[in-house]
Amino acid sequence: MFRNSQTARGLTLIAPPALYALLLLAVPLLAIFAFSFWSQDFLTIDYTPTLNNYREALSEPLYTELMMRSVLIAGAVTVATVLLAFPIAYFVSFHVPQSRKSLWIFLITIPFWTSYLIRVFLWKVILGYNGVLNSSLLSIGIIDEPLTFILYNANAVVITLAHAFAPFAILPIFVSLEKIDRSLLEASRDLGENHVMTFLRVTLPLAVPGVVAATLIVFIPTIGDYVTPRLVGGPNGLMIANMIQTQFLKLNNAPMGAALAVIAMAIVTVIALFFIFLNRRWLKGRNS
């Protein structure tokens, strides 16, 4: 009976992709977790379980500073990206004709056509000491000397990552706004609310799931980014992923790099679960 049931056919269909995902995702994560309890002397790995890597990672001020900086930069990128993405998603959802929405979504995805590295290098050119931004501001007399706080620091990392992940934030917010029943907005205005209060009391609360999804989609990858901080961050813009890369590739200390990666993943997991909890409480409160 079971072999001929729909459950059996369903399990048969999902078994290959599930196994594929397990091999590509779970196995590497388990390997990193196991590495974090070992030790390494140049090329020789000692498989004796130890907590020394975690002790050092949590007690070393440099690692702690990089962890905190990574969380703050990722948080700043997330806030900036979501705040910039929401008006765009709102405009496309409420003010663009239905027949042209697909075109607008297509245009929003255009940045994905170019290499991520090319976009980072372009921002490096724009924000440079003699870059496009400084040259433009100097030519029109707004500043007397080039700005130095917009490149090779955390500010440059935030600007570059916010641009890179903007489409990831726009799309989930747009989907959430599209699901809003327009008759609710009409009912709000019929009851005497103006456009601003209708937005604050109806549109924004109903769009919260999309905002939470955009927050997670942006925050999780940005906290682990190492390319952008390396190219535009300078010494004060490096993040924990840069230290993990250094431990694995330059210092030949894979166990320490694995321990830092596990701690970073734990921090991301806690923050992500917190946002998911708040989202569920919000939805539960709205439905009760």
- Total number of strands: 2
Silhouette: globular
Structurally, the number of domains stands at 1
List the helices and strands in order. Answer: HEEHHHHHHHHHHHHH
CATH top level is: Mainly Alpha
Strand order in space, largest sheet? 1-2
Specify the helix fraction band: over 70%
Into which percentage range does the β-strand content fall? under 5%
Compute the average pLDDT: 89
- Compute the separation of the termini in Å: 42 Å
Largest sheet: 2 strands, antiparallel
How many helices does DSSP assign? 14
Query: Low-confidence spans: pLDDT under 50, at least 5 residues?
Result: none
Summed up:
The protein is mainly α and 288 residues long. It is 74% helix and 2% strand. It has one domain (53-282): MetI-like fold (Orthogonal Bundle).
Question: Can you walk through the features of this model?
Answer:
- With 288 residues, the protein is mostly helical.
- The protein has a single domain, classed as Orthogonal Bundle (MetI-like fold).
- The chain is 74% helix and 2% strand.
- The protein has 14 helices and 2 strands; from the N terminus they run αββααααααααααααα.
- The protein has helices at residues 6-35, 52-59, 61-95, 101-108, 116-127, 132-139, 154-164, 166-178, 182-190, 195-206, 208-222, 227-233, 240-249, 254-287; strands at 39-41, 44-46.
- Strands 1-2 form a two-stranded antiparallel ribbon.
- A hairpin with a 2-residue loop joins strand 1 (39-41) and strand 2 (44-46).
- Helix 1 (6-35) packs across helix 14 (254-287) and helix 2 packs across helix 14 (254-287).
- It is globular, with a radius of gyration of 24 Å.
